[in-house]
Amino acid sequence: MKDIARFIAGFERFQEKYFGEERELFEQLTLGQSPKTLIVACADSRVDPALLTGAEPGDVFVVRNVANLVPPYHPGGDFASVPAALEFAVLSLKVEHIIVLGHARCGGIHALMQGLASETEFIGKWVSIAERARERVQAELPSKSPELQDRACEQAGILVSLENLLTYPWIAERVHAGSVHLHGWYFDLAAGVLLHYDPLSNAFEAPSPS
Hints:
The chain is globular, with a radius of gyration of 18 Å. The longest helix has 20 residues. It contains nine helices and six strands; from the N terminus they run ααβαβαβαααααβββ. The protein has a six-stranded mixed sheet with strand order 2-1-3-4-5-6, with helices on one face. Helix 1 packs across helix 2 and helix 7 packs across helix 8. A hairpin with a 4-residue loop joins strand 5 and strand 6. By secondary structure, the chain is of the alpha/beta class. It is 46% helix and 17% strand.
């Protein structure tokens, strides 16, 4: 019950700030939302995209799932949570940026790499979205440690999701027109750094100073 009490106290601080000191912001937000950025992030409790980016309420539209994966386009898929969120963000909210935010020490990717996902009812099928990332890592880094293989697969999984985003015709159309921009980000929990994928170098790098 201590956690629940802490959450309630946290809401009271939120309420005091946004419905007291900065009430004007939520008065505007009651009229609707217009975020310019969609973040596809992991459900991991250590990786809160709003906290990591310092976003205020209304700044980002967030989709969270195991291993921050985007499934490929499949018309008429049953209970398609991620595609539904993508559709709403792109077609209704008209976001301009889509960020796939992965992270180090991801449990979903670890399960995929170790073959543990096959022992589960739902996780295995879900993380199989990144199967080609696992195959690539095992082919290119067969002698590396499990830790380095996991890290490589975490980053390769981000690229799989970026590739899958382009299978959605209404995303691909906007990317090619320049009205939507795709980004791959990787948060290193141990080092406390955020890496960005650079297509020119085909690597995750620290962003250039602004």
